């Protein structure tokens, strides 16, 4: 079964939206296989988003992602990577489809509530960034 990494970002936590976003994730058929709350340091955020180093938004992104606790989770479902990206909508909430999580809750491209891996390969890398194998639930 395919897995993806989701992060409920610091704006989601700060605005009290953890429950509502998880409700939508579960209602869409995803099973939560791992989950925790962590407050990333700036260096850890830079490590997670290393592929974006050099982009104009890198400083803003890593400052924001280390500004408060976030909730990384491993989600499982058939076609999890693509289906999760469809559930959350486009990076920019103004461009996100009606009914998507970002369209409903996100305030900007930067503060956009939730992250989802963009490929199966990146999902594997991102899952291991946050979760050692002992924290990954494998019971049905
Ligand atoms: P995410 O899915 O976490 O992956 C990279 C993040 O960079 C993305 O969500 C956005 O929050 C952020 N991002 C992408 N483009 C911009 C931008 N133009 N300005 C600010 N943040 C951006």
TrEMBL record:
It is found in: Cytoplasm. SMART domains: NDK. Gene3D superfamilies: Nucleoside diphosphate kinase-like domain. The keyword Phosphoprotein applies. It comes from the Bacteria. CDD domains: NDPk_I. Its main location: cytoplasm. Transmembrane segments: none annotated. GO terms for molecular function: ATP binding; metal ion binding; nucleoside diphosphate kinase activity. Its EC number is 2.7.4.6. It is an enzyme of class 2 (transferase). PROSITE patterns: NDPK (PS00469), NDPK_LIKE (PS51374). ATP binds at residues 9, 57, 85, 91, 102, 112. Keywords: ATP-binding, Cytoplasm, Kinase, Magnesium, Metal-binding, Nucleotide metabolism, Nucleotide-binding, Phosphoprotein, Transferase. Pfam families: NDK. The active site is at 115 (pros-phosphohistidine intermediate). Residues 1-138 form the Nucleoside diphosphate kinase-like domain. It catalyses: a 2'-deoxyribonucleoside 5'-diphosphate + ATP = a 2'-deoxyribonucleoside 5'-triphosphate + ADP; a ribonucleoside 5'-diphosphate + ATP = a ribonucleoside 5'-triphosphate + ADP. GO terms for biological process: CTP biosynthetic process; GTP biosynthetic process; UTP biosynthetic process. Its cofactor is Mg(2+). GO terms for cellular component: cytoplasm. Homotetramer. Major role in the synthesis of nucleoside triphosphates other than ATP. The ATP gamma phosphate is transferred to the NDP beta phosphate via a ping-pong mechanism, using a phosphorylated active-site intermediate. Belongs to the NDK family. This is Nucleoside diphosphate kinase. It comes from Rhodothermus profundi.
